[in-house]
User: What shape does this take?
Amino acid sequence: MDVVATVIYSSMLGMTVLALLENLNRPKQRQTQFLSGLFVLLLIHVLGELYIFTGFYQYAPILAGLQIPLRMLLGPALYFFAYATMSPEKSLPKRAYWLALLGPVLVTAAISPFLFGISSKEKLALASPATRDPELWKIAVFACSFGMLIFIVFTGVYLLATLRMHSKHRAQLLERFSSIEKRSMDWFRGALFLWGGAWLLYATEYLLGFMGLRWFGTGIVLPTVEALVLLVFAHMAIRQPVLKESERGPAQAEPPKTYSLTESRMQENANALNMAMEQDKLFLEDDLSLKRLSEVTNVTENHISETLSQFLNSNFFLFVNGYRVEAAKQLLQSTDKQVATVAYESGFNSKSTFNNVFKKTVGTTPTTFRKQQEAQ
Assistant: This one.
């Protein structure tokens, strides 16, 4: 028994069970259902690791390798969760499920010589260099190594597809909302990189183990990394609120293939937009949306988007927050109000968003900007 790895994976087992139970108590939504499925797959993964590190394989060698095909569903499960959370579609197309099953089918075919061509007694003998049959060991190494390479490629494809989906989701938010922090799920992008790193490390450890190689972190680094990633992901995923349909709309950030507005018409639209900001102070509404601006200016949402992208070289988020930053600069120069107060009085509904937008626009933080103005 590997004590350290057993303790860590046992704690992961508890975390996964608690996360699953908490998620099951939430209102039934597509998002929570797919998240529950992901937790079940993670539970199987953890049990598979405990099967090895606790030495239980000695009592049930016939189970060796059966968890590998199920691990192939981890990438698709993350994609399905993202789809249910960010996509406006009510259900996944059937082909998505068939493609997800392709991974387990391929890896089952790859490791079938190990799964079905070797008896339980022979599998148990492979665990020790002193008892293993060299020819059977070659079969086991080739089959499982090939299966792990399939896992890397298949899971990598799904991670990239999920990253692309998140990027599109964030882009369409920038076109329709002035505040996107609670809608953009930026934590999810970081989680995808963490899972990708953890699973790449897992595959590397797996392959090194079959080649008989060990390093100082064997049995310690991987379980620790997986435990930390699981803890962060479970906490953030369960806290993630269900987005409204309007927040999961089709990406409007993509410019239309043909433009319907003349330059003079876009100039008129731009004047109307600037007037709404400068005279009506519409930017002070902390959750200003494209729909709201359309209602005030009597310019359609599509025409506003076209004017912003083609005439003003901007998008809705940058356009509105540009006015907010200018208002904040005036308050920072003319008053001694706290930075948080300045942020809210300028139309921002989050201090962190204010700091990020201000720094990207001005080049310095609000506090630094105020100090520079005082020095001048």
User: Anything to note?
Assistant: Residues 251-257 have pLDDT under 50 and may be disordered. The chain is about 70% helix and 0% strand. The first helix runs from residue 3 to 24.
